[in-house]
Design goal:
The chain is α/β, with parallel strands linked by helices. About 30% of the residues lie in helices and about 25% in strands.
């Protein structure tokens, strides 16, 4: 089969490799249809990741058709259309047993320790089938759209942990695909007013296509002032960072309402200097600071259902498709912020 193999830092080669064989009767073989490119794929490509040992096939926003299935697998049959998310719970540690697989002590993921979706076939490990985020694609939902269940699942986890509730005002910093998806999801979850801010001009224009009340150009206006103005001087109930920047985290803290919630949704590069925090602000505002990362199989299933019902229209978030041979162009398109979600069709 053809696969895009990560062979080392900044080295991906598209080449013929042996098609994986289904040897375990609890596993399955997936014919890959769509695998969307994630910001973390680019980080692995440039900087590596301790959980990814080259040579490895990366890509964790996965959708495909079951080509072969082990005799002990009951949930799936040949021809089933399925989507797979990233975080795979080990199923045994205390966090996994409590349903918090994204906090698993081992922290397995597709396209990390397990092979990913940038290939014609993907051998799915039995552990993924028993405990992982693998689900049949509901209804008429297409493969490209179903692949986006992975980032949407992370957004659901992020908003659940931010205690988003009916009538809340929401401010999101960063209008990339995940920020915009989060904005639409916040609306669906009952937000009264959704604001988003962005620096790059192209992304700012793209953000206007979505169901977002206030799009703030961070280079032309003052984020804090604008959010305060839009919330009658009170600040936002929920503030999320959807861009990997310390500046965004500092900004988030300036617009938090009393009893509001801040979620540092986007992580920062390892080694970033710690932030100085005015803890009296937290004390007097009675506000909350959260973080969230990844998602659980429950979030992935829910994301697929939202997408299939059309509540979140994944098509609007997909700006480019590329064949596997052009994976480097796909990475470029993501990195240069020319597009929103970019999907590889192996
Ligand atoms: Zn992802
Ligand atoms: Zn675990």
């Amino acid at each position: 089969m053809k696969a895009a193999v990560l062979e080392g830092l900044e080295k991906i080669t598209v080449k013929e490799v042996e098609t994986p064989k289904l040897e375990d009767d609890r596993g399955l073989l997936l014919k890959m249809k769509s695998c969307a490119v994630c910001g973390s794929d680019l980080r692995i490509y440039h900087y590596g990741n301790p959980r990814v040992k080259p040579p490895q096939i990366i890509g964790h926003e996965i959708a495909g058709e079951v080509a072969e299935v082990g005799s002990k697998v009951n949930r799936f049959k040949v021809g089933d259309r399925v989507a797979i998310g990233a975080d795979v719970p080990c199923g045994e540690c205390a966090f996994c047993r409590d349903g918090q697989g994204n906090n698993c002590e081992i922290n397995y993921a597709m396209g990390y320790q397990f092979p990913g979706g940038f290939a014609e076939y993907l051998l799915v490990d039995p552990l993924v089938i028993t405990h992982g985020p693998i689900h049949k694609i509901p209804g008429e939902l297409g493969y490209d759209e179903a692949a986006l269940a992975e980032p949407l699942a992370c957004c659901i986890n992020g908003l659940e942990l931010s205690w988003l509730s009916l009538g809340d005002t929401v401010a999101i910093i960063g209008a990339g695909p995940v920020g915009c998806m989060m904005a639409e999801l916040a609306r669906y979850m009952g937000a009264r007013k959704v604001m988003i801010s962005q620096r790059s001009k192209t992304r700012l224009e793209m953000a206007k296509k979505y169901d977002i009340d206030v799009v703030i150009s961070a280079t032309e206006e003052d984020f804090t002032e604008r959010v305060m103005e839009e919330t009658d001087g009170m600040g936002a109930d929920v503030v999320l960072t959807a861009t990997s920047s310390l500046e965004a985290q500092k900004q988030a803290l300036t617009v938090i309402k009393n009893r509001g919630r801040v979620n540092f949704f986007a992580g920062l590069p390892k080694g970033t200097d710690p932030i100085m925090l005015d803890t009296n602000m937290i004390h007097y505002k009675e506000c909350y600071l959260f973080g969230s990362h990844g998602s659980t199989p429950r979030h992935h299933r829910m994301a697929l259902e939202f997408l299939a019902s059309g509540r979140i229209n994944a098509r609007k978030f997909i700006s480019h498709n590329f064949p596997l041979d052009q994976i480097m162009e796909a990475f470029d398109t993501v990195e240069s912020r020319k597009g929103m979600k970019v999907v590889i069709n192996p």
